[in-house]
Design a protein that fits this description.
By secondary structure, the chain is an alpha/beta fold. Helix content is about 50%, strand content about 15%. It folds into 2 domains: about 150 residues, Metalloproteases ("zincins"), catalytic domain (Collagenase (Catalytic Domain), 3-Layer(aba) Sandwich), CATH 3.40.390; about 240 residues, TIM Barrel, CATH 3.20.20.70. The chain is elongated. The two termini are about 35 Å apart. Its EC number is 2.6.99.2, 3.1.-.-.
Length: about 400
Amino acid sequence: MPIEIINQQKRNVPIKWLREKLEEALGIINLEDKEANFILVDDELITFYNTEYLDRPYPTNVISFSQYEGPFIEIQPSLLGDVIISVDTAYREAEEYGLPQKHYLLMLAIHGLLHLLGHEHEGGPYGACLMLKKEIDLIQKLLGRKAQKITSFLRRREYMPAKLAVNVDHVATVREARKVNYPDPVHAAVLAELGGAHGIVVHLREDRRHIQDRDVRLLREIVKTKLILEMAATEEMISFAREVKPDQVTLVPERRQEITTEGGLKVKGRIAKVRKAVEDLKEVGLKVSIFIDPEVEQIKAAAKTGADIVELHTGHYAEANGLEEMDLELSRLEEAARVARELGFEVHAGHGLHYQNISPVAAIPYIEEFSIGHAIVARAIMVGMKEAVEEMLFLIEKAR
């Protein structure tokens, strides 16, 4: 039998259907004379394999051990190798992404099969692109009209690195609640960088409700990655940014009555004013971003301002009620990110993202960096800042 499925776990799996689809896949790629083993395990067992052979002491969805090439090819020439799939992780991720369980399981099996054949997505953009193309082609042929949802997910999950910038505003919120000198957002920033953060974000509001001028000045001296200053496009803030010179300025809307930023900057109809602010900041060498709603017209307007980056407001996605609304907002973000990239922007995203909702949006290939604060600071209360950042980075990297 070309496909051997060895079930070593207790969950219900459509083994007969899965075997038929994988044998069909071998036929499509003209390898009917080859064999492959697919071993279905739980999280505990795949963690053992990861720890023993790959130095990864945690569960993953799929791992492959190829005999199609290398020193073992002569031992059993017809055997491609072994694909190990954690059904626990597969079903958990399928639920998280809103995908049919058996289709997601087939997707992981095809991914593992292509690894057996020597395809690799971690060796550079060309190899990743080629592997993705083959995955989508096979899934479309195997599932027909039912393939759309899973292939859309695959396109979003294109392999490219994503960065994490950590906002430490709410460390200052705790400090300002008692008007004392602790906890210090500067200390939190150092720990966030030790946890792997690619940047530190602070929002200096006109009312100074959390971050203070002193914080920004000290962070400018201490931050080793990059310092991102969020601010309103006022004369006072532009003058402050020109003096302190953070690595990046993100222009945001601001209302004193709001608890947190409520939406993106409205650029359409205010292009000249925004462009003047951008020019004043870029005059002293600052990189400029605009925090913007995922609306194509706003993005096209932003393209006329000279800004380098757009940060897509993810608040509507984060607040979506139910999977259908979440899928709609996710599609809006993906389309906005695609348009922004085509217009030459570097694309970032943030607002309301947390450990339970980051994975689907982190799979959008056009987004290069995520700005996350409240969730990480809240988690840090329980486990520490360094650990909270590491956990978020793991989820972002896993989504790609």
